[in-house]
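Forwarding these from the shared drive since the link keeps breaking.
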Amino acid sequence: MDIHTVTSGTPLNGPDGIFDIGEIGPGEFFVQKFTVGEFPYYCTLHPWRTGLVSVVSGHNYLPNVGSDFGDGANVFDLEYKFNRLVDRASIDESTKSISFELKGNTINDDNTLTLFLPSASISRISSVSIDEVITEEFTQEFEDEITVLVINEVPSDAKSITITGTTIIPEFGTIAAMILAVATVSIIAISARSRLGIIPRI
């Protein structure tokens, strides 16, 4: 059974000092954290054995936004890009706003928060607040039924982001009010018929 090393760098240029776990045998493993970039590695004992770790900047997800609000018909997974964790969504139907908690330490110096929001759930964003203080440092664009909201210069210690728009999931209040109105009219009509001795046909 072979013993290998996992050493960052290339056989041509040698180790670059980013990581070197020394010798490792079959069945053994190690953990290495990476930032965005490309990291070549090789085995110093068998220099023809090489590899490359490629780390790209991707998007994160906050699942089931809106699942604990209204009838749950318009739940969505929030896609976002940020140097911290976006957590727990809180919806306020009366102000047509949605708030997100921000957690954790920054993993890089890019303090821009990009949110990919379904336009059917929240659209025409009118204001953005960071820790309940309104900021003008945001832009919004519309791409294939998605509102791309970019919030610049989010402080590294910010605790929350609140977004206010013209619609908010799931518009439950409007639907409930319509159902209530129809039900009330129906009850009044049936009561009136009963008093007049009219029996509705079924």
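-- next protein --
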Amino acid sequence: MADHDTLCGWGDRDKVAWFVENAETVIPHRREQLRLLAELIPSPRDAEIAVLDLGAGFGAASEEILTHYVNASVTCVDGSAEMVSIARERMAKYGARVRVCHADLADAAWRRAVDGSFEAAVSAVAIHHLGDERKRALYREVYDLLGPGGVFLNNDLVATPPAFKARFEELNLLTIQEQDRIKRGGARPLEEIRAEMRVQLQAADPQHHSQIAALGDQLAWLREAGFTSVDCYWKYLDLSIFGGAKEYPVGFSSFFAAKSG
């Protein structure tokens, strides 16, 4: 049995319930990120694409994709039984277009939960919980599950430059305060918001903390895994959308052009 909590507290019912209620408030520019995550997938909106959502949580990114791509199907993978339960309830209205799998990305055995290949793989604010070596391995696993021309898009936290740590935190809190004001109709003090988030977002196991890697390192790991067109496509302070593509084999260029057109 593992000697630490690989889910970083996301198996806790109360913590999950709080996050489901507050995700669009406590993550700066949350709606903008989810929209772009869906829009970056290089497929027509009516394409019958299969998408893999890693660390899918309660299904926010999956729902954005299912709404944007009306013939898409999504396979959701998450290690939290609480998140999986909520996702299955939320996603039931999409019927056979959604499959929700309970599997922990910290263990390479998660791959046994999914079938076939995918046109795209996405993740939203999840992979940073994994250690660096596990991140590198996961990027290779995702590459193998993508079909030719497939893309991987990771919307996640990246390491803050040390000299800007305090400033990033302040600017993030100001954005959260404004989002909170819009939701609640009144501005709460920054210290009240900071205290609430410190309690709600701390890891359940003090021996296992989120291991947030530098953006540059992660872009290098994607290239190492075989991805091309690797880049950061969106960034606000320590939140990024980055990823890459799995190239078509030689001779498939005409097929790619037809599919993209």
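The mean pLDDT is 90. The longest strand covers residues 146-157.

- D.
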